[in-house]
């Protein structure tokens, strides 16, 4: 009767995290409270994203509302919701958002021990045509709660204590790791709860898909060019890989996680450090990939070993199935 049990014994994300945290005797529920506020932000954004097409149809977007304010753009709105939810959780001390030039230092009366780095709504070019977009987040602990400094944020990704993303697609899926593997939760809209649907996600050791913006090929370096050439014309006589590229990091990484393969945003002649941001794009996704048994590489080293010098710094990244990332590492080693 296990299917019956599954239907009546719902493992919500809160219950799951409470279970995980109960393994640590010193845990006092702070992380669970923090996560609940992140989840609230995700639910809000999910709701706004699903209504945004309708709002456009009814001519709401871009119009002024009753207070005479312009309707806020979705990414700006999402950022406000996350910042307010995180500050009011009372569990954060520093926030870094893709939308804000400067880091936010939480006032002492509302301060907690966690640092949250996030991209509230990633994949902005996909918003207006209804393609999947997402939220990405990473969590660190501060060293000295009474004295938070920017250095607390500029830690290598391997020091994160948790990372995750929420994808606003055909369903709303939240994928989370607290350093004990990766689990996926799907929002049940009728309950308003994220329910555990993807237990202990492991990425296939090798995949059949490569994912990259090939429009930049003219400016790639030699190892990337060779690697992609080999995806299409494999020298060992194996079948060519399929190409999938959505242009939303969350959606491209989510597919890579479930189906296997490799996602790449390399350096190119125009952008020496690629496009993706270290703190709230490269680090959380690399953390999740490693936790799922995959790898993340920058072209020079393990992505989680980058020591960022600025909060909006960028880095090239190659992440996905263990063996596929081994191949690109070999291309770089051969070129060195
Ligand atoms: P954004 O923060 O402006 O949305 O840019 C980030 C997005 C990622 O989601 C995605 O992987 C990448 O940009 C796609 O870039 P490109 O359009 O250059 O292929
Ligand atoms: Mg982004």
TrEMBL record:
Alphabetical list of PROSITE patterns matching this protein: FBPASE
Keywords for the protein's UniProt record, in alphabetical order: Carbohydrate metabolism, Cytoplasm, Hydrolase, Magnesium, Metal-binding
HAMAP family per the UniProt record, alphabetical: FBPase_class1 (MF_01855)
Fructose-1-6-bisphosphatase class 1 C-terminal domain: residues covered: 203-332
Catalytic activity: beta-D-fructose 1,6-bisphosphate + H2O = beta-D-fructose 6-phosphate + phosphate
Family to which the UniProt record says this protein belongs: Belongs to the FBPase class 1 family.
Protein name: Fructose-1,6-bisphosphatase, cytosolic
Entry's EC annotation: 3.1.3.11
Organism per entry: Turnera subulata
């Amino acid at each position: 009767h296990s299917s019956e049990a599954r239907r009546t014994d719902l493992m919500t994300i809160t219950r799951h995290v409470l279970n995980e945290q109960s393994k640590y005797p010193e845990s006092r529920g702070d992380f669970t409270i923090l996560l609940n506020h992140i989840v609230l932000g995700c639910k809000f954004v999910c709701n706004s994203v699903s209504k945004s097409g309708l709002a456009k149809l009814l001519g709401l977007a871009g119009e002024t509302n009753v207070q005479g304010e312009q309707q806020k753009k979705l990414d700006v709105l999402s950022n406000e919701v996350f910042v307010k939810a995180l500050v009011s959780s009372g569990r954060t001390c520093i926030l870094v958002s893709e939308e804000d030039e400067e880091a936010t230092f939480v006032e002492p009366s509302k301060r907690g021990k966690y640092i949250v780095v996030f991209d509230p709504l990633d994949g902005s070019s996909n918003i207006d045509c209804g393609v999947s977009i997402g939220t990405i987040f990473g969590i660190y602990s501060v060293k000295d709660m009474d004295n938070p400094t920017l250095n607390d944020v500029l830690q290598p990704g391997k020091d994160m204590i948790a990372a995750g993303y929420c994808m606003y697609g055909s369903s709303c899926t939240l994928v989370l790791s607290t350093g004990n593997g990766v689990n996926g939760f799907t929002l049940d809209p009728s309950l308003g709860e994220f329910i555990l649907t993807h237990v202990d996600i492991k990425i296939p050791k090798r995949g059949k898909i490569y994912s990259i913006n090939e429009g930049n090929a003219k400016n790639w370096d030699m190892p990337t060019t060779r690697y992609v050439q080999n995806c299409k014309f494999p020298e060992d006589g194996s079948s060519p890989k399929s190409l999938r590229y959505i242009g939303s990091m969350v959606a491209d990484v989510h597919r890579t996680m479930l189906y296997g393969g490799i996602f790449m945003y390399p350096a190119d002649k125009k952008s020496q450090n690629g496009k993706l941001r270290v703190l709230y794009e490269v680090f959380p996704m690399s953390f999740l990939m490693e936790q799922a048994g995959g790898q993340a590489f920058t072209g020079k080293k393990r992505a989680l070993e980058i020591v960022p010098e600025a909060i909006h710094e960028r880095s090239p990244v190659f992440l996905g199935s263990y063996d596929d990332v081994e191949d690109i590492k070999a291309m770089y080693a051969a070129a060195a």
